[in-house]
């Protein structure tokens, strides 16, 4: 029983990070029809900001700073990189996102360091909490923060005009403009939210791995992309469910696979994802037509 | 009659090398309902879209309330124009209430609540469906929602693109009688309509548009000869 509880905590913790990242991808995709592969580099930006800021200010303040810098970076990337190609087709925008990602990674390598920098986990995230089973405090904090953010985002999307406009723009951008809502505001808000979500995920990622490197965003954003596809491209609830499901599958494989086979964990998880997509090609919450638009 | 509310002068619209609108001039005054009729591809919807800033205005001038009309849709709406688009295009996943709130996105929260009450008084069926997703409403209800959403921004001129499309005649009559009420409160209305009878029954003036140009206008109330117009109208389309 204790083992099960431990694995549930692990699944919620890992899945929560994927869910935040997947949601960040989905928020932008729902409005722009763009899978932003530079999303992982926003994580990296948050990671470096945290690493440098934590030596100057308290950890909570450093986290806030990391979020602020990632939000600004996301909005700047939209303004400089994506706005000029906003009316272009999906392939052009996808290539633009790869280009931005590569430019940022090379910049990190040349301006900061090509090697991983060590991050000293702050005392706040160390230690364990007894919830019937001893679990890492960092995991509990990440679960609470993730769930709080998801609830706050739901309130934002349902309770504010800009949130409603973002939902409306996801289904009909042109008519959304006819409501007097500025297209640029909606797109900028989507990128700001995605930057914030990437930053929070980046903080968890760095805190758990105790290092920051120029390519650290690549793997998690790839996983987040898988979560988005699993949940259904274009669906925000789908991205969240896809993230948690992917996390649960990973934790399940880690717990059940014999140690000799642990190298096949990712392959097994992806095989399970493929099986789900064969049964339901549009993903769990997706609409079949969305990629055809 | 004083200066018209909307004054479109020699409007040109070119999409991808095709001249969809060729030198269209028209006016609409406050408390006036004007129809723009014509066959498919005549450029009627392009004219409305260009007025709203959704299609590029490649020539001519548009003045609204004596001033040049801005080119961005957001500014056009803030200036006092609004469009209920062809095919309703309500936000299907959003509730009726959220659709209406978005219609009043440019207003303060207090004004938005006031306008929502007014819109729901005019379209009471929407009050009963207030929490339903707009996508589950019937065609007639969606058309009412589209118009209610459009008037949430406190416009002075309402543009209606094909309000009768896909609706039963009784529902069309009901909706246009509500539009007539709006006109009595001071609103100007410019309506694109394929149904010639509807246009003549509900509008003060009618422009006939063919091939991107206005080919006839100035039909007076007492001199309307619907048969003649229908003959001319279909005669042109057949040619």
Task: Characterise the protein shown here.
The complex is a heterodimer of chains A (293) and B (239). Chain A is mainly α and 293 residues long. Chain A has eleven helices and four strands; from the N terminus they run ααααβββααααβααα. Chain A starts with a helix and ends in a 14-residue tail after the last helix. The model of chain A is unreliable at 289-293 (pLDDT under 50). Helices cover 38% and strands 25% of the residues of chain B. In chain B, a hairpin with a 2-residue loop joins strand 4 (59-64) and strand 5. Chain B starts with 5 loop residues before the first strand and ends with a helix. Classes of the chains: A mainly alpha (293), B alpha/beta (239). The interface between A and B is medium-sized, with 18 and 23 residues.
Structural class by sheet pairing and helices of chain B: alpha/beta
Provide the helix percentage of chain A.
Answer: over 70%
Which quaternary structure do these chains form? heterodimer
- The number of helical runs of chain A is 11
Which spans of chain A have pLDDT < 50 for at least 5 consecutive residues?
A: 289-293
Q: Which two chains have the most extensive interface, and how many residues on each?
A: A-B, 18 and 23 residues
């Amino acid at each position: 029983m204790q083992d099960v509880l431990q694995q549930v905590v692990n699944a919620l913790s890992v899945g929560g990070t994927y869910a935040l990242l997947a949601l960040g991808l989905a928020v932008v995709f729902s409005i722009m029809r763009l899978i932003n592969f530079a999303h992982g580099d926003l994580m990296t930006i948050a990671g470096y900001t945290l690493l440098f800021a934590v030596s100057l200010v308290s950890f909570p303040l450093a986290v806030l700073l990391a979020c602020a810098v990632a939000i600004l970076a996301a909005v700047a990337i939209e303004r400089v990189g994506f706005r000029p190609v906003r009316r272009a087709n999906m392939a052009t925008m996808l290539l633009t996102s790869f280009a931005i990602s590569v430019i940022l990674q090379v910049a990190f390598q040349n301006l900061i360091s090509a090697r991983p920098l060590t991050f000293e986990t702050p005392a706040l995230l160390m230690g364990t909490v007894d919830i019937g089973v001893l679990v890492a405090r960092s995991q509990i904090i990440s679960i609470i923060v993730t769930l709080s953010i998801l609830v706050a985002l739901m309130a934002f999307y349902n309770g504010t005009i800009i949130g409603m406009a973002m939902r409306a723009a996801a289904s009909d951008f042109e008519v959304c403009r006819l409501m007097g809502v500025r297209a640029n505001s909606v797109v900028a808000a989507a990128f700001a939210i995605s930057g914030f979500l990437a930053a929070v995920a980046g903080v968890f990622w760095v805190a758990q791995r105790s290092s920051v490197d120029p390519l650290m965003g690549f793997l998690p954003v790839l996983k987040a992309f898988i979560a988005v596809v699993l949940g259904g491209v274009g669906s925000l609830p789908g991205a969240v469910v896809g993230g948690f499901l992917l996390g649960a599958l990973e934790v399940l494989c880690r717990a059940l696979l014999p140690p000799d086979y642990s190298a096949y964990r990712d392959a097994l998880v992806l095989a399970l994802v493929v099986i789900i997509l064969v049964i339901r090609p549009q993903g769990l919450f997706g609409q079949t037509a969305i990629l055809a638009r | 009659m004083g200066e018209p509310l909307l004054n479109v002068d020699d409007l040109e619209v070119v999409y991808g090398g095709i001249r969809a609108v060729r030198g269209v001039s028209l006016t609409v005054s406050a408390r006036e309902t004007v129809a723009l009729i014509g066959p498919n591809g005549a450029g009627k919807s392009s004219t409305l879209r260009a007025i709203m800033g959704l299609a590029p205005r490649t020539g001519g001038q548009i003045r609204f309330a004596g001033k040049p009309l801005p080119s961005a849709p957001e500014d056009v709406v803030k200036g006092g124009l609004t469009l209920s688009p062809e095919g309703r295009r309500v936000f299907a996943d959003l509730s009726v209430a959220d659709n209406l709130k978005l219609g009043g996105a440019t207003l303060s929260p207090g004004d938005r609540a006031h306008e929502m009450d007014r819109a729901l008084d005019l379209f009471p069926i929407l009050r009963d469906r207030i929490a339903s997703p707009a996508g589950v409403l019937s065609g007639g209800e969606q058309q009412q929602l589209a118009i209610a959403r459009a008037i949430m921004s406190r416009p002075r001129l309402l543009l209606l693109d094909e309000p009768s499309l896909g609706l039963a005649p009784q529902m069309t009559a009901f909706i246009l009688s509500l539009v007539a009420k709006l006109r009595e409160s001071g609103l100007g209305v410019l309506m694109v309509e394929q149904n010639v009878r509807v246009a003549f029954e509900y509008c003060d003036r009618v422009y006939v548009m063919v091939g991107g140009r206005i080919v006839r206008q100035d039909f007076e109330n007492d001199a309307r000869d619907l048969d003649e117009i229908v003959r001319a109208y279909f005669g042109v389309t057949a040619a």
